[in-house]
Design brief:
The protein has about 800 residues and is of the alpha+beta class. Helices cover about 25% and strands about 20% of the residues.
């Protein structure tokens, strides 16, 4: 056997000293969830700087021929267990003043390892070649790529100095602000008050999703005056940097270096003020540390922890529960389980992967599947008995695995999922399936996403008696909740009387006294299929606009049916609100009656030609009823007309939603006539968005029209297509097209009977999908199991009536 040092010198050409721009992995294996703390430690390839666990490092040698590795091993240090816990003061984990992550301390050792015989050399050592010593030092000193890609959970962005602070103009209007007793000058609000630093006006803050908060008077004042800065009263103390200063034009919390001077202008001596209000960051912190988990998390229940294959938790990376809950359910399906675990080994996935496996979706999905399903990482933390050295009990919480590399890959094409902000689990699920479908485009027979995919068909009956059919593909059935179908109407009436009495007495209704509507899932499904009137439908048979009747059905039944409950609606006063409602969901459903069978004998299709006068009749005109209602709410008349046109006159709610999300658009004041001049130019539409709509099953021409009509917004474009079914009739379609038999849009998709069994629930806590917490309940091995990030246990009372997404598996007949 040759001398180890000679062996190392003979391979020096493959050793690289990393540059500052190189990504260095040293915290987690690229193919598994092994870390330096794992039994075999971690091996860093000193040529590519990729990391591998002990079971995977040989595969990398076989694939690349790279022989020299830095081996890192961490072992626990014995530390005192009587350290007091400190209350967090910062919105962060594992930082000074933040949440105590209770991490144990580890001792790190290093060796140089040469494959294939695992010849080892100690490090540090002066005998090592200088190139090796420099390379190892650079690797150890560099910040790991994993760390660079991970922002600490819940950490608030560092506030920047406002561009408006140094030259802020203050009006000498004689306003003197008292040290207490504040009230909004436009309403009776006495909390959540903001002092405008230009004119000294005290006004209430924004209205929240759930109707709480202020009445938007402070933001309305800015829109009228454009005075940029306001400070939240009750947050001003001697520590001026902690005061909550908000910049409206910059739309974020900022620092005002001259705040003391700006406050003194209105007679405010900050040194004497006491803190009475939480800052925005503190309120977020409070919501995260004092959440009412309620039934969804089964808090208070004696949940038996579960470990083993298929029961591995996912570490929360910071507001990543939407990802964890969704992926746990996805990998409980046979299609994903077999595609990325049973039928594909880690080694095979690595052999197929590009040079950097961390950016390959197939590799990272296989890694995640094996991490979740193998049981290798589903090991509970062990506690030592205080009076003995022997291990006596196990803690309910297992360590779990962090899905960092998977999140980085799946979020690469979606900027929102790249952040640490909370996201909509439904939006993530659809994005995930789209990416999986794209990754398997060359081999559709292997695509597990198609097990969720199905065909949807709209049948439109014109008043002429003729019909047209429009088809599309979808992954989910999105269901409205018909509250009028509640089965406990009498109890609701009694509760509302009881609530009114409580309010009249100045008392609040306790949470256990609240009665919520109970709506059967069958009513939601029936509502989806119910006939719906389409007004202003252009009939090619009548050559005029008329009222048509639309009914919707499914042309195929998927292996897995996902139902999305639309719990976010507009309540009276046009305030966005989450429906506080229970859905009675049975374990078995039958949707056989929802199958659509296409053109039936005796039905006559609408003519496909579009008369020339339709072009004139289809010029965008706003619905005056919609415009007048919006104007009565205080919106600009021109903006209201534009909103009505952009939402195809779908309704006041849709137009208001568009207005609220486009108030800051640079072209919001551009006359409609000028916009119309360029409306025929469809080539300017983002091709990637066109491709996305095509992947949903829509024709390219229709996709372009819809994106143009909706300002490039994919979600609004989808709604536009559904609300304008006549647009699917192409104006330049050849007359012979109707005589051919086109390939069904759902060709190649799974199909079968309409009976399904409930296997998974993704539930949501919080006032909107962009905040709060997601939890999954999955039916596995004959029982319901709760998956709450890295906490997994036998469910005592699964919240079947509180789901946001319901996953059903088709029963084989």
């Amino acid at each position: 056997m040759s001398d180890p040092m000679d062996l190392l010198r003979s391979n020096l050409s493959r050793v690289r000293i990393p540059e500052p721009t190189n990504r260095i992995y040293k915290q987690e294996c690229c193919l598994s969830f092994d870390t330096p703390r794992s039994e075999g430690g971690l091996f860093i390839d000193m040529n590519t700087f990729l990391a591998f666990g002990k079971d995977c490092v040989a595969w990398n040698y076989e694939k690349t021929g790279n022989k020299v590795y830095l081996h890192i091993k961490q072992t626990k240090k014995v530390v005192a267990e009587d350290r007091p816990l400190k209350k967090p003061t910062l919105l962060g984990i594992g930082i000074d003043g933040g949440f105590d992550n209770s991490e144990l301390e580890y001792e790190e050792t290093y060796t140089i390892v040469i494959l294939p015989d695992h010849v080892t050399l100690p490090f540090p050592s002066v005998e090592l070649p200088e190139k090796v010593r420099l390379a190892v030092d650079a690797i150890l000193m560099a910040e790991g790529a994993e760390r660079k890609e991970q922002v600490a959970a819940w950490i608030a962005d560092k506030k920047q100095t406002s561009a408006y602070a140094m030259n802020l103009q203050q009006i000498d209007n004689g306003v003197i602000v008292p040290p207490s007793g504040w009230k909004c000058i436009k309403c009776d609000k006495t909390d959540n008050l903001w002092l405008n630093l230009t004119d000294g006006m005290i006004l209430c803050g924004r209205k929240n999703w759930d109707g709480t908060g202020g009445n938007n008077h402070a933001i309305d004042h800015y829109n009228e005056t454009h005075y940029p800065l306001a400070v939240k009263l009750g947050t001003i103390t001697a520590d001026l940097e902690a005061a909550d200063v908000f910049s409206y034009p910059e739309d974020e919390s900022v620092l005002d270096p001259l705040l003391a001077q700006h406050l003194a202008h209105f007679g405010i001596d900050f040194s004497s003020l006491q803190k009475t209000e939480m800052t925005t960051a503190e309120r977020e912190l409070d919501q995260n540390t004092n959440f009412d988990w309620n039934r969804i998390q089964e808090s208070g229940q004696d949940v038996e922890p579960i470990c083993g294959p298929g029961y591995t938790g996912l570490v929360n990376l910071g507001n990543s529960c939407y990802l964890a809950a969704t992926m746990q359910v996805v990998f409980s399906t046979h299609s994903f389980y077999s595609r990325y675990h049973t039928n594909q080994s880690l080694k095979v996935a690595f052999e197929m992967a590009p040079a950097d496996p961390t950016v390959d979706l197939n590799m990272q999905l296989t890694k995640l599947a094996h991490g979740l399903l193998s049981g290798k990482y589903s090991i509970p933390d062990l506690e030592k008995d205080e009076n003995a050295n022997a291990t006596s009990t196990t803690r309910a919480k297992q360590e779990g695995i962090p899905p960092r590399m998977f999140k980085a890959v799946i979020a690469a094409s979606h900027p929102e999922f790249s952040t640490m902000r909370q996201q909509d689990a439904l939006e993530f699920f659809l994005h995930f399936l789209d990416q999986v479908e794209r990754a398997n485009a060359g081999k559709p027979e292997l695509d597990p996403a198609k097990s969720f995919k199905f065909g949807v068909e709209d049948r439109i009956l014109c008043s002429s008696g003729k019909v047209t059919y429009n088809s599309r593909l979808d992954y989910i059935l999105s269901l409205n909740i018909p509250l009028h179908e509640a089965t406990n109407k009498q109890e609701l009436e009694e509760f509302h009387k009881f609530k009114a009495e409580k309010i009249s007495e100045g008392k609040e209704v306790s949470s256990d006294e609240i009665v919520r509507p109970r709506v059967p899932l069958e009513a939601c499904l029936a509502n989806f299929s119910a006939p719906e009137e389409i007004h202003d439908f252009y009939s090619t048979a009548l050559k005029a606009k008329t009222t048509a009747i639309k009914t919707t059905g499914l042309t195929s039944f998927p292996d897995y049916l996902v139902l999305h409950m639309r719990k976010f609606v507009m309540e009276a006063g046009w305030v966005p609100k989450k429906l506080d409602v229970y859905i009675d969901v049975p374990d078995i459903i039958d949707i056989s009656h929802m199958r659509s069978n296409g053109l039936q004998p005796g039905e006559e299709l609408l003519p496909e030609g579009v008369p020339g006068d339709e072009v004139e009749s289809n010029k965008p005109l706003p619905n005056e009823d919609i415009v007048s209602q919006l104007v009565s709410m205080g919106f600009n008349h021109h903006h209201c007309e534009k909103a009505a046109i952009r939402t195809s006159n779908a309704g006041v709610e849709e137009a208001m939603n568009w207005l609220l999300s486009h108030m800051e658009d640079p072209d919001i004041d551009v006359p409609i006539s000028q916009e119309a001049q360029g409306a025929d130019t469809l080539s300017s539409v983002d091709q990637s968005k066109v491709d996305t709509l095509i992947s949903f099953g829509f024709q390219e021409e229709i996709a372009r029209k819809a994106l143009k009509a909706s300002g490039g917004d994919i979600e609004k474009a989808t709604d536009w297509i559904f609300n304008n079914p006549e647009a699917s009739v192409s104006s330049d379609m050849d007359a012979t097209t109707s005589n051919t038999t086109p390939t069904p849009i759902d060709a190649g998709l799974p199909d079968g009977g309409g009976r399904y069994r409930l296997i998974g629930i993704v539930s949501h806590i919080g006032t909107s999908t962009q905040c709060g917490h997601y939890v999954a309940h999955i039916f596995k091995d004959g029982r319901w199991v709760i998956f709450n990030d890295d906490k997994i246990g036998a469910s005592v009372n699964p919240p079947k009536d509180m789901g946001y997404l319901y996953f059903f598996e088709r029963l084989n007949s």
